[in-house]
Queue: 2 jobs
Job 1
Amino acid sequence: MVSEHLFAARQRMLNQHLRARGITDERVLAAMQRVPREEFVPEALRPHAYDDRALPVEFEQSISQPYTVAFMAQAAQLEGQGRVLEIGTGTGYGAAVLACLVAEVFTVERWPELCNTATQRLERLGFRNVVTKLGDGSLGWAEQSPFDAIIVAAAAERLPAAFFDQLSEGGRIILPIGEPGSGQTMFRFTRRNGELQEESLGMFSFVPLVCDQ
Ligand code: SAH
């Protein structure tokens, strides 16, 4: 049951944390309104589900801050017919938001337990257009490419080489780059005429992208 308290908290999140901080894409706002974040956080943290901050989950990982999820989705300029690759499924919250915005979401997580839990949770909540995979997301997901957007929910030291070939013409990569621990710069890379155009979108803080090779 969604308590009135949580429902009101979700509305406050939309108005105070998202709209007020520059999330203007109405489709992104509607997606953030639709996804019950309380279902993605540990039981004890449910009262805090709509605080605008990352919350701790298993294996020293975290569920991203609502503003960050909305910011990345907005920066990716998604359209309803799109196919998106997300790296770092975590709880599945980001994938659920993306699932409200595009036709197909492919998401990769390297921790088996997180991947399993997120897969079951997304199924239980009825997000049928999300496909999960266990593995190293820095390699992308060649079999399912090309993607209109690749969204990376963990901080990389550099742009993974595999992503370019898996991006459609005009496609966008949203990726935080920087050392773990300190903040990282969010970049948008857009593929145009065989090249990547790079834009810096501001500072954020993420757990590291851990690459297996
Ligand atoms: N999008 C998530 C939050 C992601 S936190 C949510 O909404 O809950 C970052 C996640 O990236 C963590 O779960 C971490 O295990 C995962 N991760 C780190 N390196 C990875 C890699 N190389 N491939 C896939 N997942 C990775």
Job 2
Amino acid sequence: MRTPLVAGNWKMHKTPSEARVWFNEFLDELGPVPSEAEIAILPSFPLLPLAAEELAGSGVAFGAQDVSAHDWGAFTGEVSAYQVADLGAKYAIVGHSERRKYWREDSALVAEKAKRALEAGLVPILCVGEELEVRERGEAIPFVVNQLLDSLAGVEPGDPARLVIAYEPVWAIGTGKTATPGDAEVMAEAIRSALATRYGEGFAEGVRVLYGGSIKPENFAQILAGPNVDGGLVGGASLEVASFVALSRLAVGL
Ligand code: PGA
């Protein structure tokens, strides 16, 4: 019922020419895109037109790593969700922990970004996750649930297919450390039950909850085994064609 999603967050990597090579090699190596899972690439803004061109008709979706909290206007350096959507993008990450940390984006701003994404017709991939000291204090679940609900203030996707949540423990991102499959599942379940309280049981059952943080082909199958974990948001391992093909195949095996 929930189609697994594996989404590659390229962060600030790859030139347009490197991206073109990657898209071609990836589609060649992957072969026909399976219908049992969804694959998406989230490159930086200047690569989005290229993603639209290279992925057209392939069945692989693409999206942005962020969007502005504003729709249009005098906001130098910002990118509108409408601009992203017009290229044929499906997704936009909002609230990634790197944006929360380095640009001090708070959950109220993240909620505005999620609203703009939805208004433009994009599906927000809304990220939440705790710092290590929060986990060590035993407060990871209430922290993440609060962050989630604050980031969803006023956000009304209507249809569960129009919202994706990514649980990414901050201490697991780019560090080689991953949450145990058990911890990822426990958190995904807590997220789903918070969504049930917020939007109703039926809605919560349909929302995809991803795990993210040092996903690799070697650990992905175990993470995906959790019944509430519906895929992965992948950073480092999405940069190499071979590892992202392997992760895409594992998602199909769900
Ligand atoms: P990582 O990044 O896979 O390199 O840990 C994940 C993310 O930040 O989305």
